[in-house]
Design goal:
heterodimer, A: 340 residues, alpha/beta, Rossmann fold, 2 domains, five-stranded parallel β-sheet, 8 helices, 29% strand, globular, B: 291 residues, nine-stranded mixed β-sheet, two-stranded antiparallel sheet, 7 helices, 26% strand
């Protein structure tokens, strides 16, 4: 009762990294609340294959549901598992990845349990809440902190009366770490048919095709990112060249992606990837808050922009006032000249 | 074999948060809604296009646009009619105000039950003012229907089964789902067709009662052409429970809202000159910041 739960996402028998990141965060929240960290995973043929990818992150108890029809993921069976398990276990918090799966499953579960869900949180904290209308005081609620309104404001959301308090978090926002403390590491394999009704399997997956990621933007120590100021898809070519010589990856702002300059999977920001590189080179990016939310933890930020008042310049360590088409080729040239 | 489908498109009027200018925030740090134009939520347009295609492929089908908002959101229904929708419903009531996604889904699901015998409920994956993607699945749950989210194309509907290609993380998937069902459409799906000039002429004065002035000069027109009178529903009209609507039906509460202030750093400002750029590269190399 009252524990912290993390829903574990899998592709076959591979546990998603975002789930491990959430276990690390969930462990901290559980420690703070003095409760246990539980995990739930559902798939086909996962027994004996996923436990080692889950338990080391501080899991006290893992509920592993292994059965036909649980992979590839479809909404109804996974919803049944969570809803029926949560009715028994009464968790106070449930975290899941803000992935395609988490954003399909989370709202369905929250609607079934009439509990609140906050999407795409960037911070999760424990704190008190005084409801000014009802004059009620609540201890130890989950603060679900997220940018809102296109990233122009940040809102702290609470669910005072309903349990579990549910939140989704994007990949890369939290950082995973093997738990140093002692966790119970218990594993149970509940009987799937006790949780999932036969009618739940009605949606059929005819074809399921996942490609390995084409790039490692999330883990790259050097990121060269372009914004609307790059002007065109061709403008991005020089960013790819700069990234190549620096052994980095190319990212983009939402404006550049919306304009078709760059693929969606390279979008950095609140609705894209969150990065924590050593060096972040922002080229022609004005720095809307929704973008900054995805890169502000970069160690060194270099901004190349012809507008000296671009908001991103305020958080940059180096500001180069100049046109990107002039500066980027010079960065390439002088790196090549000086790096050997 | 095709059969006529009754399709409801969920659409939302949203502030255009994609093009936020410097005047979008007031000096007090609140959102200046007046500075942001109200638009048809982009992914809802992708959904409308899928609905209109189904209508063309399945003769006799109807497409209706369901929206919730203040009276001016009647514009969303008109925009739907201009592109080929047959009808629309505006849910508007002070009791709906302040709804989180769950209370919104309750209101929409209640209206869909009122509309009745719907084969397909289809909407955008998410709205750009909240980016939550929660309303589609929650409507599906409240109606007890199957859901397919992140759809890119409805490939076919045969024997009451829809075959849908959908986006997943790092790939694509094709699924089969029996009707009735709820579908949410990704922004990467086909863009929506433009407004049709004839339909604009036909429907440009279509409006909901609350959008009109008390002494409306077109009163005669509305009396003689019923298709210009758009459906406007309150909580009572859809037999809704006020406790599950709006603020009181919302489990999530906003504790605080803050304007984002980033910690300004002390930055070095350089020019685009060769000397400055080379100096920077040398500095980064010497400090082993880049290799």
């Amino acid at each position: 009762m009252n524990n912290v739960f993390v829903y574990i996402e899998t592709e076959g028998t591979q546990v998603a990294e975002v789930s491990q990141e959430l276990l690390t965060k969930g462990r901290k929240l559980a420690d703070q609340l003095g409760v246990e960290l539980h995990a739930v995973v559902a798939g086909t043929g996962i027994k004996g294959k996923v436990e080692d990818q889950i338990l080391p992150y501080g899991v006290d108890k893992l509920f592993a549901f292994d059965g036909e029809g649980l992979f590839p993921y479809t909404s109804a069976p996974h919803t049944d598992i969570l809803v029926n398990l949560f009715k028994e276990e009464q968790p106070q918090i449930c975290l899941m990845g803000a992935t395609v799966i988490g954003r399909d499953l989370g709202p369905r579960v929250s609607s079934s349990l009439t509990s609140g869900l906050t999407a795409d949180c960037t911070q999760l904290e424990i704190g008190d809440f005084d409801d000014v209308k009802t004059k009620k005081h609540y201890d130890n609620l989950l603060y679900q902190i997220r940018p809102a309104f296109g990233g122009n404001i940040v809102a702290t959301i609470v669910n005072p009366e309903h349990r579990p308090q549910m939140a989704t978090v994007r990949s890369g926002v939290m950082q995973k770490a093997i738990y140093e403390g002692k966790a119970k590491n218990e594993v149970v394999y509940p009987e799937v048919s006790k949780y999932v009704s036969p009618e739940a399997y009605v949606v059929k997956v005819l074809d399921h095709h996942v490609e390995a990621a084409k790039h490692n933007l999330k883990g790259s120590p050097i990121v060269v990112a372009g914004g609307y100021g790059m002007g065109s898809k061709e403008g991005f070519d020089m960013l790819f060249e700069l990234a190549k010589v620096l052994h980095g990856e190319v990212g983009a702002s939402r404006a550049a992606v919306d304009a078709g300059f760059c693929d969606t999977d390279r979008q950095i920001g609140q609705t894209g990837v969150t990065v924590h590189p050593k060096v972040y080179i922002a080229c022609g990016i004005s720095g809307q808050i929704q973008h900054i939310a995805g890169m502000q933890d970069s160690k060194i930020i270099i901004s190349v922009n012809s507008d000296p008042d671009a908001p991103i310049n305020k958080i940059a360590d180096y500001v180069i006032n100049g046109a990107v088409e002039e500066v980027v080729p010079k960065l390439i040239k002088y790196y090549k000249q000086n790096s050997k | 074999m095709t059969k006529p489908l009754k399709i409801v498109v969920l659409a939302k009027q949203v502030p255009d948060t994609r093009n936020v200018g410097k005047d979008a925030m007031t000096p007090e740090g609140t959102v200046n809604r007046a500075a942001l134009p109200a638009i048809f939520n982009p992914e809802d347009l992708n959904a409308l296009e899928q609905a209109l295609r189904l209508k063309e492929q399945n003769p006799g089908s109807t497409v209706g646009v369901l929206t919730m908002g203040p009276p001016r959101a009647g514009e969303i229904i008109r925009q739907g009619l201009f592109r080929g929708a047959d009808t629309g419903w505006l849910l508007t009531d002070r009791l709906f105000a302040g709804a989180d996604t769950l209370a919104t889904s309750y209101a929409l699901a209640t209206a869909i039950k009122k509309i009745g015998d719907v084969d397909i409920v289809i909407g955008g994956r998410q709205a750009i003012d909240g980016d939550t993607a929660q309303v589609g699945p929650q409507v599906a749950q409240k109606l007890g229907l199957n859901q397919v989210t992140y759809a890119e194309e409805i490939l076919k509907i045969e024997n009451n089964i829809a075959t849908i290609r959908r986006h997943i993380d790092g790939g694509v998937e094709t699924v089969e789902v029996p009707l009735p069902c709820v579908i949410t459409v990704n922004g990467s799906a086909a863009p929506c067709r433009p407004c049709n000039a004839k339909l604009v002429m036909k429907y440009k004065y279509a409006s909901c009662p609350l959008e009109r002035q008390p002494e409306d000069s077109r009163a005669d027109l509305y009396a003689s052409r019923d298709y210009l009178n758009l459906n406007q529903w309150s909580v009572a009209d859809v037999d809704g429970d006020p406790n599950q609507c709006g603020l009181s039906g919302s489990p999530t509460k906003v504790k605080t809202v803050q304007n984002i202030v980033f910690q300004a750093k002390e930055s070095k400002t350089l020019t685009a000159s060769d000397a400055d750029v080379e100096g920077l590269i040398k500095e980064l190399l010497e400090e082993k910041i880049i290799g």
